[in-house]
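Write out the bound-state structure for magnesium ion.
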Amino acid sequence: MSSTDVAVFTGTEEIERFVNTLAEPAWSLNVRRKALKQFNAMSWPTTEDEEWRRSDVSSYDFDRYALSPVEAAVPPAGAVPEGRSGLLRFENGRCVAASLAPELAEKGVVFASLAAFLNDETANHAGNGAKAHAAVQGLFERRSGELEHRLFAWHYATWTHGVVLFVPGFVEVEQPFEVQFHFDGDAVLATPHVVAVAETGGRATLLHTVSSGDEGEVLLNEVINADVADTARMEIATHYELNYDSSTFSNGHAVVGRDAAYHSFLSSFGGMFSKLRMDAELNGTGGDIDLDGLYFAGEDQHMDLRTLQVHNAVNANSRTFYKGAVKDEAHTVYQGLIRVAHGASKTDAYLTNNNLVLNNGARADSIPGLNINTDDVKCSHGSTTGKIDGAQLYYLQTRGFDYETARIMLVQGFLEEVIAKAPEAVQDRLRALVEQRILADYDTGDDE
Amino acid sequence: MKIQINDLHAEINGLPILKGVNLEMESGAVHALMGPNGSGKSTLSNVIFGHPAYDVTGGEILVDGENILEMGTDERAMLGLFLAFQYPVEIPGVTVGRFLKRAADLHAGEGETKTTGFVKRLREMMDYLEIDQQFINRYLNTGFSGGEKKRMEILQMLILKPTFAILDETDSGLDIDALKIVSKGVNKLRDEGFGALIITHYQRILNHIRPDHVHIMYQGRIVTSGGNELVDQLEAKGYDFIKQEFGIEEEHDVESVTSG
Ligand SMILES: Nc1ncnc2c1ncn2[C@@H]1O[C@H](COP(=O)(O)OP(=O)(O)OP(=O)(O)O)[C@@H](O)[C@H]1O
Ligand SMILES: [Mg+2]
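---
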């Protein structure tokens, strides 16, 4: 590929031509071609599919969006920001900032642009580089084997950039890593890919944000894959904040080993249409999962969030806690499932979903479910959808809070319960966004 | 502050509860309000604060001569009225510290309270009421024991320094030590510029906070008022004595509260 011209490929028909331009390792091209095959054999999800029943994509013209593949240039070096172990920032797929604390690099930690990583021949064949490479390849191949729907397949064929975090065995990283994907322009097809691997006893936090300019339609089709080996701990905070013209499709998945812990924190604010999914699989005894989520939809946003807790091993725990607020004419859908495989006894799993509907005209659906195929388990789910509590409002008013101030405080309080579970480094940003969203006026005439 | 309640009638869902309440109170004095379960004591407190569930169907409530019935709940609070709830609500996600700071700011007016000064005062008051400092970071009333919730109401009262406070059964559910602490809190504010209406079923709190006036409520009316001797009479004879004394016909079953 030339270093100055960026080829543009639209939608679905030019994928093959796009794949042929890439100079990736053979296995990676293989993953793409296999995904392409599945893609060609599938049709777009319809509301006939249970998972897509409340999120209709039939009006999308997926050919409208153009992919801008980015060359795997050597990313710029930069200083590690205060309070971080490393930072990667991508703008329209191009890596514009890259840093990793040198002492972590010395310990074999990899935190890099995925494209650069795959193309770095020297790093791939020595020491931790080889291990990291094998782990990334393994995850890609396992996860792309059988793709559940066409957007998945589309992603695996077309991903253009991404990040790899690899934490070698027993390396414990205190400060979080941060990756930012930012997109500008119109009719942009954005396909970043996140891979996070913690080897046995490794420990890390990854802060992950996808954002866009104020205007212009971005179609995000992202995949996040995590592999948390035995006794490792991984925390990923994913934050979506695209503009109101854009769409967010995302699929997160984690496999969690014996006595390992995985924490996913999802916050969803942006996008006209969002279809987000966070799955986690407990494959080893004593594993532990927390799936937390915060969403706040306004104007005519549609947000569909789904969680899946899969118990494949005995004595593992999982908790899902998703809280959302909805205002104006927005609509949120939460679907959550706890699935306990045959033989996964002594499972302790629950899921909670609470929704606050701020006005008539806004709507929140909550569909929790259990699929339990063994005895001797403790599983429960609870979901609530309601308005602001009149007794709480009155209580605050008797203390001198006017109606509006009391209302804001109660919405903040409602969401604070889940914000408190986010990594400390992002909590204040989330609080500010919540406040902004509460105060935002809905102008049905012309929105931005 | 002078509160005059004249021939107040109020109902809930069309059911009349207050049937002509007359009561006059002034800051500088502590009043006690007693009466059997369901007689309308909490209803009166809530009507004074403009609870939206109650409809006032007659009468008036004047504060310093001004009818407050058209005012919003928060405006009434800003007049210097305070209500310690019989059942304080839990507000998850809002910490005690944040809530109290915001409330104190509202009452301080334009120039907000300085954070350092506020925290110092809050800590002092918490020490005074023997509330663990850890409560500053807990969510308001959430998971608090019954007694802790009552103490939290008194803490709020000390921070907001109202001119007139209604304490709706703040003593119920308190152990002896907590009762002393809560009484101490009320007595701390007691002076010319502070008045209170203490709603209670028991004499014991009135031994710690001696009321200047005692009122008895029965079936939605104040049937008699007097001094401390009324409390003694009640303790000795129960509410039957009130019924006989005032020739009240039973409207429906009302559970009597006798001395315990
Ligand atoms: N929301 C409501 N719906 C129907 N009836 C109500 C409602 N709230 C209060 N009441 C009735 O109003 C009457 C007065 O209740 P209130 O709570 O004022 O009594 P109280 O004197 O405070 O009693 P207690 O000593 O038990 O606290 C009761 O009969 C009660 O059942
Ligand atoms: Mg009562």
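---
The first strand of chain A starts at residue 9 and ends at 10.
The two ends of chain A are 36 Å apart (CA to CA).
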